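Consider the following input, taken from an annotated entry for UDP-N-acetylmuramoyl-L-alanyl-D-glutamate--2, 6-diaminopimelate ligase (Planococcus glaciei).
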Amino acid sequence: MEIQFDHVQLAEEHRLGPVSQEISSIAYNSAEVISGSAFFCIVGENTDGHLYISEALEKGAAAIIGSDWQQVKPYAEAFPNVTFIAVKDSRSALAAFSIHFFERAQDRLVKVGVTGTNGKTTTATYVYNLFNLLGMPCGFLGTTGIYNSSGKTPYKKSTPTTPISSDIHQIFSHLAAFGDRAAAMEVSSIALDQKRVEGILFDVAIHTNISEEHLEYHHTFENYLACKLQLFRQAKTAVVNIDDQGMAKEILEAADYPVLTYSQMLDSGADLVWTNIRIEESGMRFELHFQQQVHEVKVPLFGEYNAGNLTAAIGAALLSGVEMEQIVSVLPGMPQVEGRFQLIEGPENRKIILDYAHTPVALDLVMREVKKLPHNRLITLVAGIGIRDFSKMPKMAKAAEGKADVVVVTVDHPGFNDPNDVVNEVLKGFTVPYKQQVLTATTRRAAVVTALQESGPNDIILLSSGCINGAQNIRGEFIPHSDEEIIADFFLQQN
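Applying the prediction step yields:
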């Protein structure tokens, strides 16, 4: 595509070289530069893209965009046919350029962004599934992968949750070309801080809740909250959980557009209220109050808190112009969410539940919900996440303490940490002597097997924590991992 650089809002400070170029692709990793690429020098926590300008030029980059003119300018004389641009912020420039390069594909989609400490993946997936059931073909961008309306699509993700801006707009372009009319996506606080969604005006922004998380990145809760709030400055409408004390008030004060509130309290004054939840063998039923009418909801999902996540998704559909009666009529067809209170039936009436709750609040919630299901004993796997804040690890033990018969402590994504150090950090959170049996394992695979070995007839095995994207981050490498495969192999060997 021919790009006229003065037609793109890059906030240029300096430019040398041709005003237009035939651009073949966008790259922020020099390893992915091809002939004709526009290479963006992104400054990250561990590296600086300006250090790879030479490599990008050797591979045929047609444009170099960075934020440090002193590092960019020296290459201009040696490569007069290349465009060199200095901008105020490389990440903002990458977002603006990506929107232009992919011909504003985002404008052809209804965009629903979901943020919150807990429930992002579940709620965004409920939006994806609900919109597709309603006949509004929808894609998904989030923790469990990239999907178009027909299912998962092969895509090498750049981040665990919200992709880099150039990837987002490439995915939007793919969805629009596929015929999808909407996109549901998780929007993390880090993504907001790193301007990955800059330039996107969300048709609906959803707030689930907020609690302490990602302090290894944000350092303070105030910084974390400020990043989350940014989503609601980029929205046309919003769905807000007014039961959440941490953030709802700030959103409502700032919103100057239509908002639907949701709650589980009848006296809250919320627009959408869910009550009278009944757990059944095939899922749950609850009553949904809206505009002075009560609707009976039947859905094949588990976990009372998921009534709230589902209600948020229903709010997004309402704000997108769908009638409540039509929404309620399709809810019995809602599929389970991968790794979110995902129920697997095992032999001898065992129930294995995959729920990758990885915060103390989420773990507490899921364990309370699991205990409501009929069972003999509960065996729970709890993990410290090596690439996250170590101060959170003992809190995971505190959240699990006294709620299970057996707790298996392990590590997810150890990164460059010694797995034993992570396990020991989690163990610090337990009361001594232990209130339940505590076992340990230094890999998630070993921990899953240990939990299954401990189980007997009519037991529930809850596999919690942060195994995402089908891999474990071990010393910078992503090693394939699947709890489901381990479970299947374990019971196959038992037979």
